[in-house]
Amino acid sequence: MPLLNRLPPGLVSTARALIPGLSNEQTESRTFEPAHWEGLPASTKPGVFETCANPGCDSGWLKIWRSRRTPVFEGGWSCSPECTRAIVEAALRREMDGRGVAQEGHRHRIPLGLSMLEQGWISAPQLREALDAQKTAGGGRVGQWLVCHRVVTEEQVTRALGLQWSCPVLGVEFHDTEGMTSLMPRFFADAFGALPLRVAAGRILYMGFEGRPDPVLALAVERMTGLRVESGLIAGSLFRPAHQRLLAAQYPRTELFEAVSESGLVHSIVRAVEKAQPVESRLVRVHGCLWLRTWLQPQRGPVPETDSIQDLVGTAVGP
Question: How many Å apart are CA 71 and CA 77, to the nearest integer?
Answer without folding.
Answer: 6
